[in-house]
Design brief:
The complex is a heterodimer of chains A (about 280) and B (about 260). With about 280 residues, chain A is α/β, with parallel strands linked by helices. Helix content of chain A is about 40%, strand content about 20%. Chain A has nine helices and nine strands. In chain A, the strands form two sheets. Chain A has a six-stranded mixed beta sheet with strand order 5-6-7-3-8-9, sandwiched between helices. Chain A has a three-stranded antiparallel beta sheet with strand order 2-1-4, with helices on one face. In chain A, strand 8 and strand 9 form a beta hairpin. Chain B is about 80% helix and about 0% strand. The two termini of chain B are about 15 Å apart. The chains are: A alpha/beta (about 280), B mainly alpha (about 260). Chains A and B meet through helix 3 of A and helix 7 and helix 8 of B.
């Protein structure tokens, strides 16, 4: 309770300060992370002094090697854990969130419908009332007609689609995705990237997308924040110039895509430069 | 029926048939007296002639077994749920549940007979044996929900009750059913062991008592017939619980998955 009150007080204070200082802000960021430190119970520092603004409606990728704290950022945004130091300030109180894990994370004992219904069910929406919303979410991910299937009857890619439908069913303002396609084969992954890009431009939701893949991040994002490990921090920011709304499969063949991939890749190498020399040799090759 | 199924049933049936034939043949060839080793045919005919007595005893043993199993299911699930709510409660009681389990039931039975009527004592013995596998499995099951799903429930602000009903309980079901299959067999063993202990005190009328009684009277064919009934009862309990488990898990659990070939 006290923490919430404090957060509200600080938010108000920031708003007042900004007004007093007359800072010209076109649209204030949806979320602001200010000097966020996160130290786990085992004394591992996951994040050290992370500053990050997430703007409403943008597709932001967090790209970096293992251990750079990019998943921790998502957990902090989802409220699953709190920062050790620093502040996370939301523009709107209690925004509707959707979360997609690396694994589909479905309940194997219930069918696709019941899995997608879950977030609404937890909010007290009856099965009948939820039906149109669930149907809509399943259509959005291309799984209309699979409502009665059980997860184990589906392929890895389809399970991931169910997981995305579950995240969309509450019509979230922010979609948090933690390496959602990392466990899939390349062909399925490309297809899901295309579908996610199309879906995103029709929904207009803010997406925070964690990934290991340079190509995936460039293809999907408006903006890429490159992170470095040990301790986790943001080291570079890359703006992908082409508007995401008009991106299609052909974007992968554009020069702009290739250039941004090179630029991002170089930034990633710089980010990994402070690793032990042995690792660097492999990375630079 | 596929070829694999045929082999699966036919081979053990053949082994059994050959074994029984050899047994019958040897007993007849060497003219072994029936009070040493009765032939299978004699055992079957005893089973038929003594059916009124034996079936009554079978019913007594089965009803004790099933009652004990039912009480064990209710008790262990209730206690496991309590353990899942509080680590302190688990710490406080779990060691005693283990102690209860590792103490041989044969050693406790005579003591129970002092304080309880033989009928109740036998029931308590069967319950004690059946209780622990159910408790251990259900406790493990309730704490083995997928961590990401737990996070997801937390993110959607699920109540404790919702998390329990929609996540922990279904996650625990396969574990509970595995425990139930073990406990089903153990409840029968517990009932038999306790009946033997109680039987020597001159009470009871279950199958174990019939075995002890027939032993005293050198009625060896009837001993075998009673033994056969106990085996059949054990196998039946196992098959029924396996079928229950299959029926409940067939849609989703990996243990019920058959690979398409």
């Amino acid at each position: 309770m006290a923490a919430t009150e404090r957060r509200v007080r600080i938010m108000n204070k920031i708003a007042t300060l900004m007004k007093e200082a007359a800072i010209p802000v076109a649209s204030p960021p949806l979320v602001t992370l200010r000097g966020v430190h996160k130290v786990f119970a085992n004394q591992v520092t996951a994040l050290e002094g992370l500053d990050l603004d997430i703007r409403a409606g943008e597709f932001l990728s967090l790209l970096g090697p293992s251990g750079c704290g990019k998943s921790t950022v998502l957990r902090l945004l989802a409220g699953l854990t709190g920062p050790t130091r620093g502040e996370i300030v939301w523009l709107t109180k209690c925004p509707e969130l959707g979360f997609v894990f690396q694994e589909p994370t479905l309940t194997p004992w219930s069918d696709v419908f019941t899995n997608v219904w879950l977030p609404l069910r937890l909010a007290g929406v009856s099965k009948e009332k939820a039906r149109p919303r669930v149907k809509e979410a399943l259509e959005q991910v291309g799984l209309a007609g699979f409502a009665k299937a059980y997860p184990r009857q589906l392929s890895g890619g389809m399970k991931m689609r169910v997981s995305i439908a579950r995240a969309l069913v509450t019509r979230p303002t922010v979609l948090l995705m933690d390496e959602p396609f990392a466990a899939l084969d390349e062909i399925t992954r490309l297809k899901l990237n295309d579908d996610l890009a199309a879906l995103r431009s029709s929904l207009g939701a803010t997406v925070v997308f964690v990934t290991h893949s340079v190509f995936e991040s460039v293809y999907l994002s408006d903006r890429i924040v490159v992170m470095a490990a040990r301790p986790g921090r943001a080291v570079a920011e890359i703006i992908v110039e082409s508007p995401t709304e008009s991106r299609q499969e052909g974007f992968r063949l554009c020069k702009a895509y290739a250039d941004t991939c090179v630029q991002t890749s170089e930034a990633l190498h710089v980010a990994m430069g402070d690793r032990p020399p042995k690792m660097l040799k492999g990375g630079a090759a | 029926m596929s070829k694999d199924d045929f082999v699966g049933y036919a081979v053990p049936a053949l082994t059994l048939g050959l074994g029984l034939l050899a047994w019958e043949g040897l007993v007849r060839y060497f003219a072994v007296p029936s009070y040493l080793l009765p032939a299978p045919s004699l055992i079957i005919s005893t089973l038929i002639t003594d059916w009124p007595t034996l079936s009554a005893s079978l019913w007594v043993t089965l009803s004790i077994t099933l009652k004990a199993l039912a009480v064990a299911v209710v008790g262990s699930v209730a206690l496991a749920i309590l353990f899942a709510q509080s680590r302190v409660v688990e710490r406080a009681f779990y060691p005693f549940a283990v102690a209860m389990q590792v103490t041989p039931i044969v050693a406790i039975a005579p003591l129970l007979l002092i304080y309880l009527t033989p009928g109740v004592a036998v029931l308590v013995c069967a319950f004690l044996v059946a209780f622990f596998p159910l408790l251990a499995n259900t406790t493990l099951g309730l704490s083995s929900a997928d961590h990401n799903l737990v996070d997801l429930f937390q993110m959607y602000r699920a109540s404790r009750m919702q998390q329990f009903m929609l996540l922990r309980l279904p996650s625990a079901l396969p574990y509970f059913l595995a425990g139930l299959r073990i406990s089903g067999g153990l409840a029968l063993i517990g009932a038999i062991v306790a009946e033997i202990a109680a039987g020597s005190a001159g009470q009871g009328s279950g199958l174990a008592y019939r075995i002890v009684e027939s032993g005293f009277r050198l009625n060896i064919p009837r001993m075998f017939a009673a033994l056969l009934l106990i085996s059949v009862a054990g196998i039946t309990i196992h098959l029924l619980l396996t079928a229950l488990s299959h029926w409940l898990l067939r849609d989703w659990h990996d243990s019920e998955r058959t690979r398409e070939t």
